[in-house]
Amino acid sequence: MRSPSAAGWVRRALPTRRRALAAAAAVVLVAAGVAWAVRPTEPDLRTEAGLVTVRSGPAGDEPVDLDTTLYLPAEARADAPVPAVLLAHGFGGTKESVRADAEEFAGQGYAVLTWSARGFGRSSGQIHLDHPDYEVRDAQRLLDWLAARPEVATDAPGDPRVGVVGGSYGGALALLLAAKDQRVDAIVPMITWNDLARSFLPESSGKGPGQGVFKQGWAGLFFGSGGAAGSGSVGGSSGSVGGSAPAGSRPADGPTAAGAVDPSCGRFAADVCAAYLRIATTGRADQGAVDLLRRSSPAGVLDQIEAPTLLVQGAADTLFPLTEADANARGIAAAGTPVRVAWFTGGHDGGDGPKTDSDRVRFLTVQWLDHYVRGEGPAPDDDFTFSRIAGFDALDRGLVATGFRTTDYPGVTGTDQRTVPVTGPAQPIANPPAGNPAAITSVPFAGELASLFGGVAVDIPGQHARFESAPLSEAVDVVGTPTVSIRAASPTGEAVLFVKLYDVDGGGAATLPNGQVAPIRLVGLPAAIEDAAPVTVTLPAIVRRIEAGHRLRVVVATSDQAYATPVEPAVHTVALATGAVTLPAVTSAPIPTAAVVWRWVLAGLLATIVVGLVVVLAVLRRRHRRRESDIHPAYANVPLAVRELRKEYADGFVAVSNVDFEVHPGQVVGLLGPNGAGKTTTLRVLMGLTQPTAGEVYVFGHRLVPGAPVLSRIGALVEGPGFLPHLSGLDNLRAYWRATGRPWAHARFDEALEIAGLGASVHRKVRTYSHGMRQRLAIAQAMLGLPELLVLDEPTDGLDPPQIAEMRRVLLRYATGGRAVLVSSHLLAEVEQTCTHAVVVNKGQIVASGPVEEIVGESPSVLVEVTDPVAARDVLDRLAGVRVLPDGDGHLVVDTNGTARSEVVAELVRAGIGVDRVVPRRRLEDAFLALVGENSRGSGDR
Question: Whole-number mean pLDDT of the chain?
Answer without folding.
Answer: 81
